[in-house]
Design goal:
Elements lengths: L1 E4 L5 E4 L3 E5 L17 E9 L4 E7 L3 E8 L1 E6 L4 E5 L2 E6 L4 E6 L7 E8 L9 E6 L10 E5 L8 E2 L5 E8 L3 E5 L5 E8 L2 E4 L5 E4 L4 E5 L3 E6 L5 E9 L1
Parallel strand pairs: 13-14
Antiparallel strand pairs: 1-20, 2-3, 3-4, 4-11, 5-10, 6-9, 6-11, 7-8, 7-10, 9-12, 13-15, 15-22, 16-21, 17-20, 17-22, 18-19, 18-21
Amino acid sequence: MINLYPAESRHSFDLGWLKGSHSFSFGNYFDEENTSFGPMRVMNDDTISPKRGFGAHPHSDMEILSIVLDGALRHEDSLGNVMVTKFGGVQRMSAGTGVVHTEHNPSDTEDVTLLQLWFEPERRGLAPSYETTNYDPNSLTGRLLPIASSDRVEHSVAKLHQDMTVYLSKLEASSTLSFKQQPGRKVFLFVIEGRLEVAGTNDAKTLLSRRDSARIVNETVLKLEGAQGADETFFMLIDLP
């Protein structure tokens, strides 16, 4: 079953220095019927103005993944980590027993746009940790590239403490990919740019446009195709328990 969530169905806001959209309940936005998808708890699509950001704040028992789409994001935490990440970079923080961090846009002139995702860890009480990894944006075309996973098969893939994998991909119009899924697992799809057609085992196609998402269950094979009229489609696929 493929359940479509159009971009306009998200909770969106504009604080001037921060513009964003929440795909799940977060902060002041709460919908008791939209709090999670498997272990996935947060999918925020944020744009932060130059020299602005989030001051020191704590987290615990959560896997937090920040994927920079444009601009630069500066992270500093109570573990002593300080890092600036740009497009092609991924920040992973396992909050575990507790960590305090800040997130800022260090640029004087440019916004930073990022996706931030939170997942429940496989168990509570892990030692907190942080890492920044990088992938080659030129290697996204025509493949599902893992950028974070519980099964780190490449050094460039961030290690998640949950049985899941986050992929990025780009497809040209009419180009296709297949994704095989184990029975009982879930898929979260999110189109960053362009348009994507997805079909399950019954071959019925669902069209996702820019910033649309889909929550998919009980499908063992997904057929993904760059839709006509989009020069290139950039999307994220998450395999979840």
